[in-house]
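Lab notebook, page 48
Experiment: co-folding of the full assembly
Goal: obtain a model of how the components sit together before planning crosslinking
Operator: M.T.
Materials (sequences as entered):
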Amino acid sequence: MSSLSRRAFLKRLAFATDTARGGRTPHTLVCIFLRGGADTLNMVIPYANDAYYEVRPTLAIAKPGSEGRKASLKLNDFYAFHPVMKALVPFFHDGELAVVQGVGSDNTSGSHFEAQDQVEHGESFGKKLGGGWLGRHLRTRQGGMTPLSAVAIGKSLPEVLRGAPSASALTSVEEVKLTLPRGKSDSVTEALSKLYSTDIDVLGNAGKVTIDLLSKIEKVKRASPRNAGNVTYPETTFGNALREVSKLIKAEVGLEVACVDHDGWDTHFFQGAADGQQASNIEDLSNGLSALYKDIQKYKERVSIVVLTEFGRRIYENSSMGTDHGRGFALFALGGRVNGGRIFGSLPELKEQTNFFLGPSGLAVELDYRSVLSEVVRDLLGNNDIAGVFPNFKPQKIGIFHA
Amino acid sequence: MERGGKPRRVSRRAILKAGALLGGGTLLSGCERVISETTERLGLAIPAHIAVGSSTDIDPVFHLLSRAAYAPWPGDVARVRAQGIENWIDEQLEPESIDDSLCDMRSRRFETISMRPGDCYEFKDEALRNDITRHTLLKAIYSKRQLFEVMVAFWTDHLNINLEKGDCIYLKASDDRDVVRKHALGNFKDLIRASALSPAMLVYLDGKENKREKNTDIPNENYARELLELHTLGVNGGYTQKDVFEAARCLTGWRLHQRGEFAKGSVYFDKTFHDDGEKIVLGKTITAGGGDKDIDALIEIVTAHPSTARYVAGKLVRFFVSDEPPPSLVERVAKVFSAERCEIKPMVRMILTSKEFSENRGNKFKRPFRFIVSSLRLLGADTFAKSGLTEYLSRMGHGPFQYPTPDGYPEEMSPWLGTLLWRWNFALALSFNELDSVTLHLDALRKALTSDREPKVTADLLIRYLCGRTSRASEVAALKAFQQPDKSDPNTAGTETHLNELLGLVIASPAFQRF
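Observation: model returned without errors.
Model output:
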């Protein structure tokens, strides 16, 4: 191939990706997964329920208005946020942050890996579906894909994106480049493109997506310095990941789904209360979310952030001042189209379930996680094919988002 | 002791003699340069000629060395072909019988690897992380006990421990040595028993916090759950939440001397923290008053359970044969597991000599560690595994002992598909000999691969050498631009660049990502 046609080839590649969605700006979902089973009972504190203080003698968080900075932060007459969630309280009162209580899956295995897979796949316990729910959404929705339509910030693609027509994993925008010590990188890129385009299975597709990404990412790199805001993100893996998400949103490259993991919620041992292991995790989460939301204020009507985990934890603390695997959890939704300032669902009874020996106890699951995600898919992402994304499931109406 | 009598060792005199022939040091540190040149003289060199096969399907010896080893070292294919596949497997199953002194010269230099947990507390985290990571890489690249190293990787994932949790960084070296390496080809029950009381595991899965001091104390189930779910029966192995709870009760009271205590890092049993009542695990009763013997009863019950045989067999077959393990082979291997009372060698031998193993060639995807190590071995690279290598591993999300959760790094392809760009960058840096801390002898390799009959390094020749089969027309077409040397002068720098690019592209190609 001559160098002229090589240039034409690369140009065609870049052109194809730019027009994939016909120029329409899609809604962006930022999906944050708290890995390890987050103890949301110590994030959204049911301070008006005395049972909470009885079952958690050392781990309970003090009522709002208690002495010192360790008091929880009042949301309404029943609930309060953990003291380190200060940055999120204004979003709740402004009506842009909502909590959905008692969410979970029917998974009773108590296994992180089973429960995460199930939530990411969007399936019922023991009924395996191919791929993740976001993967199926991206396949069933209208329109084409670019390598920046679906992005996971991190080193690997999560299960939730499995089966997506294309998806990219990256830890930062800047690092996405092909480095050739000497010679012309165009011809190397072209050879790679040919090698991977004749490979028929998913590996061939991954190669094509990667080459596509290399050309598409240039637009984000060019836009980034212009759009640098003056928001401070936490200097943590999570904070850095959210900063990359904001770059992709602000560069307007058609980002539809961004997945970010937040690790370390498996607090079997010395969980801590107002301070400690879990508190520093919550603080990182809270400050990161707040920074991202401030950073993308201009775009908030078409950006939504959803935070979920694989299961909640036991109501009682164990003998090593931690909590073991439980069931139901509270889910968070933040964005301009969230019916915020509300806690959807009710707090399940704070008592260990009687089937302790059959399945892990903890908060009862009153709302299937897919009911929440169905509203995300239909009301935010504009995909009406709920049966295609969550087969054999009838969602319960909650009403978390508005038009 | 292992059968086969005294291991063959390179004599000390031979090492000294080879070392004495060397001149003064240049770029590498003096010690490393001596090791590089000594090991080269004693056999870790690229042979004068490498016979490159031309089989249309992946060559059976190449296949064996891709799965049961981290790819052939230059010259290995011919050597194993002459030795015979079965003989090679027999030899590899007795790792002690194989002289590994050349590898040891590189990998023994990390002092914390051989220390007791307590002594590791004297070192900085960075030094400990550096030692164990580089030791693992150097063993994988240079050990002649390749099957052993592959099994070490398998059990390291099976019994995953993350260096970065709690005090694990001080304790993992002993886990690697006294649990994983000690039992990698031994007995599964011994392996699990050792792991259960490994200081690093007691920290990683909170076993040291699992106690019953007061009647109201609820056990910490973390380890017990993973013992059943990940280490033995498997998540669908038929245990209940009650079994998890009862197993956790059996394990109460095993503790670890903490930092600041004299015997820090050592394990002890505290009967006042043990729940000494009767337990029922998987339908079997463990009578009250068992004390520190409860753990043995528990390990006996869980390792003898038929689900464990199927689960371990299935995982081994997935690892060696296919991400979709052929059920008939899993069944046969599970029978061997039960009949041979948890012995690991008979299972591995059965898998490697099976029809299913031989039929499933090139259908697995190299995880980043194998991608890197296989490229270095095939090219006969000289390295001391410094940050140039470890940074690539960590960027691809596959740093040794860095996986956060107890399920270990995934074996299947899909989670790794996002690493292609990094593989390409690695391949290009390596083939241009610009990878920090790695030296390739490309001239020697070029001479060894070419012959009168095949005087030029072509795309086809490189694919045959690096992927074990003849090239496809589409591959040759994609690489065509890089294999026509400048006609006016075959020795120009431009030609050299083409060889570098060609080599890099083959390593970056889809075929090399599979094995």
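Interpretation: Residues 125-142 of chain B form the longest helix (18 residues).
Next step: discuss with group before ordering constructs.
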